[in-house]
Amino acid sequence: MATNKKAKTASSKQKKTNNTQPQAQKSEDKAANLVKTEKKAPQTTAKNEKKTQKKSSDKSKKPNIFQQMVDFIKAVYHELRKVTWLDKKELTQKTGVVAGIVAIFTLLVWVVDTGLGGLAALFLNK
């Protein structure tokens, strides 16, 4: 029986060794792929540096401050042309709604303030 146990453990060790060989090969393949990508990386970095140099030179050629202000005002004008404005009836209705909500909240704050002020007066006078 002891011989059978030794044979079983030896065969299981061989199976484990066989399983680790493909795993080792996979890890070697991954390492090789990483090395290939690392070799490619400096080339792309050099390209990116050239692009950033071009962009920085373009930024140095920006127009003066007055031209920038004129361009900004033109852009604002074009954006305001895209806005859909309310007509007079809609404007008065929405203004009335806002004024009503403000009046309600003003009344609510006044009531709460008066109540808390009365409570504070009761506690402080005693």
Automatic annotation (TrEMBL):
The lineage of its organism: Bacteria, Bacillati, Bacillota, Clostridia, Eubacteriales. The gene is secE. One of its GO terms (molecular function) is protein transmembrane transporter activity. Belongs to the SecE/SEC61-gamma family. Keywords: Cell membrane, Membrane, Protein transport, Translocation, Transmembrane, Transmembrane helix, Transport. Component of the Sec protein translocase complex. Heterotrimer consisting of SecY, SecE and SecG subunits. The heterotrimers can form oligomers, although 1 heterotrimer is thought to be able to translocate proteins. Interacts with the ribosome. Interacts with SecDF, and other proteins may be involved. Interacts with SecA. Residues 26-61 have a biased composition (Basic and acidic residues). InterPro entries: SecE_bac, SecE_sf, Translocase_SecE/Sec61-g. It comes from Acetobacterium bakii. This is Protein translocase subunit SecE. Pfam families: SecE. Residues 1-63 are annotated as: Disordered. GO terms for cellular component: plasma membrane. Essential subunit of the Sec protein translocation channel SecYEG. Clamps together the 2 halves of SecY. May contact the channel plug during translocation. It is a single-pass membrane protein. It comes from the Bacteria. It is found in: Cell membrane; Membrane. GO terms for biological process: intracellular protein transmembrane transport; protein secretion; protein targeting; protein transport by the Sec complex. Residues 1-16 have a biased composition (Basic residues). The chain crosses the membrane at residues 97-124.
